[in-house]
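Protein Record: Sequence and Backbone Structure Tokens
======================================================
Tokens: labelled as protein backbone structure tokens, with as many entries as the chain has residues.
Question of interest: how does this chain fold, as expressed in backbone structure tokens?

___
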Amino acid sequence: MQDFKTDMMQRYEMTYLGLLHHFLGMGIIQSEDYIFIHQKKYASTLLKKFGLQDCKPVGFPLVLADKLRKDDESGAANEVEYRKLVGSLLYLIATRPDIMYAACLLARFMHSPTNKHYGTAKRILRYVQGFCDSDWSGSEEDMKSTSGYAFTFGSGVFSWASVKQQCVALSIAEAEYVSASEATAQATWLRFVLEDFTVATPLNCDNTSAIAITKNPIFHKKTKHINRRYHYIKEALQHGVIDLIYCPTKEQVADIFTKALAREQFSYLRELLGVKSVHNLKGSVNVQNGKLI
């Protein structure tokens, strides 16, 4: 490492400044035990920008019973302000995957947002101040499900997504099957990036019917209507690219990317996802200007 730094400083005009503390609006705290990445300053700026710096925090971003629709009769919101807020939340998910589903859900209403949409976006900020799965027919508008996945490497999650499916699923099993197929495509790409990995990538799914469809080499009548591109998962399983494993719904981390959850389950999955408060790290830790003090 020292030889590399010396060589780089000889070739280019640069100075070694020690450990990284800031990068593209993110703060990085490094110690011998962990690397903690946060956007505390950015989040604080957002709260001040939208007048919520002194607001009462909430424990989870979305209310379980609330379903967002295009026309909810709550009145039109300021479209420019709404887009600014949602765009800011989308950048915040770089270190806060726990708000990814909520932010992506609000992004579906960029055109003609309502006061309810804007109020929900502000609720996410109130939550921020305080701190592979699918839902079947989760969208109130077009009945399309939402796929979600998260990939871990060692102790941390490094790739995650929350995306509305392009087709309408006719059953929970089909929605899960499509979600697993999309996660398989991402797993294949990640394996291409990390070429040294030769073992199958474990892929957790909480639906036994979807697993059975994947492991059945015959295209029977129950699956013939599914777009053929989603059957890519069968080939990946047969070639040892993935290993589809059942996991209980309660332990399915990807649930946090597909639907609103009750407080207890949301907090539990958030912990499994690895989203932590800096004050919960080992030892006594405070953040000041991105450094440990």
